[in-house]
Amino acid sequence: MGISRRALVRQITVGAAAAIGLPSFARAESIGRESSPALDRSDIDRPVRLHRNENSIPSSRVLDVIRGAAASTASRYPEAHEAALRTKIASLHHVYADQVVPGCGSDDVLGLALTAFACGRTVITTTPTYDRFVQRASAIADSIVTVPIRSDYSYDLDAMLSRADAGTGLVYICNPNNPTASLTRRRDLETFIARLPQACHVVIDEAYHYYVAGSSEHASFLEAPLDDDRIIVTRSFSTAYGLAGLRVGYAIAQPAAAARMEAARVSSGISGIAALSAMAALSDTDHLAASVKRNADAKQEFCNQANARMLRTIDSHANFVLLNTGHPSADMVEHFRKNAVLVAGPFAPFDKHVRVSLGTRVEMQEFWRVFDLLPPSHVMTM
Fold first, then answer.
1. Domain extent for 71
2. pLDDT, tens digit (0-9, with 9 covering 90-100), for 207-222
3. Last residue within a domain, chosen from 263, 283, 303
4. Does the reported pTM lie above 0.85?
């Protein structure tokens, strides 16, 4: 007996919702918004931004600082505020201030690392990984080697090691990785780094570190440092701290490596308001904990909704999910764009996946409402 996929999915969605308490967005839509106030979309900002892995809820303490800091910082160069932030970050991670390299977001800091260590040399990373780094590396490095990700979505460190030689200047590892939100085991990374050529530096991008919960396979290179002068660890204020619009990030490295990155700087660094806001964010540990908890709840709800529609996700350790939609990625991105929802993709070789940031409850309801507008893609047999 044949049944259209869409009809089957709607039956399963409604049935699963009734069985385990999930909201059935398709059914609520047919009943009407008046009887389902949770689906009132009148106050959603358009477009719904689920494509940049932002945390849309900043700290109230940070907002107070921003309101009060404009008058005192707008007319002054930011050196003093940046120095204060550098000192606060150093204290947080138990390092010296000359090991801290602040920047205008982690993109800026990654660019400094590339300029310092990759000019005229080779960069090695995986595919897919953070696309902005790959684009920047392609413009700066002599060549870039991208090794396909493993079937378990971790970095293929053996394959990467086989491509490393005396001409390799930098290895880039995003952990958790973007766009897969997957982890590469710490002990495997340690073995890998120890076997790299001595002239090769390693960037460990920990932009999503705070979202990794209770994994025995993960330990930050800042919380459990490795005694190796070649390691550069980067962090961002754009994710868990909710400061994407202020552009603040930083690297921690040994003094010699940090000095080379500072020498590569062509701008004066972050603004005074951004530095003050980042310091306030570091002090507001309650907001950080709430952001992580809210993300965990949103991730569980997202997976519940995906399962109810018989969709598969890659196990996420970040604030986004790589979702297998069953449709070509480019078509899905365009479908959502036409309905004022932004998602990211495609990411080779995941040609049917889109990356979905975990937004507010109303934003995620809107995502699933738009998903359920899709026509049947094929016929499934029972």
1. 60-283
2. 999 999 877 789 999 9
3. 283
4. yes
